Amino acid sequence: MGALLWLLIPMTAGITASVWAWGSGRRHPSPPERDTWEDLDRYQRLRTVLSSNEHCKAA
């Protein structure tokens, strides 16, 4: 009987998460929408800054 109680913990957690997702309106969770071009621009700016010789160097 003690081993069955250990199965009750994940089952309770799963049911609680399902109820919470249903109650908060996320019935079909999807990944966040990201703007690919904005991410690419941010990446290019980061590469430019890191490749320049003007960035701060540790003394």
Brief summary of the model shown:
The protein has 59 residues and is mostly helical.
Report on this model:
With about 60 residues, the chain is mainly α. The protein contains two helices and no strands. The longest helix is centred in the first third of the chain and has 22 residues, at about 1-25. The mean pLDDT is about 80.
Q: Which terms summarize this structure?
A:
59 residues; 2 helices; mainly alpha; 0% strand
Secondary structure elements and their pairing?
Blueprint: H1 2-23, H2 36-51
The unreliable regions are none
Order of helices and strands: HH
Query: If you compute it from the alpha carbons, what radius of gyration comes out, rounded to the nearest whole angstrom?
Result: 24 Å
Provide a count of the helices: 2
Q: Which range best describes the helical content: under 10%, 10-25%, 25-40%, 40-55%, 55-70% or over 70%?
A: 55-70%
Average pLDDT across residues?
Answer: 80
The largest β sheet comes out as:
none
Total E-strand runs: 0
Coarse structural class: mainly alpha
Shape: elongated
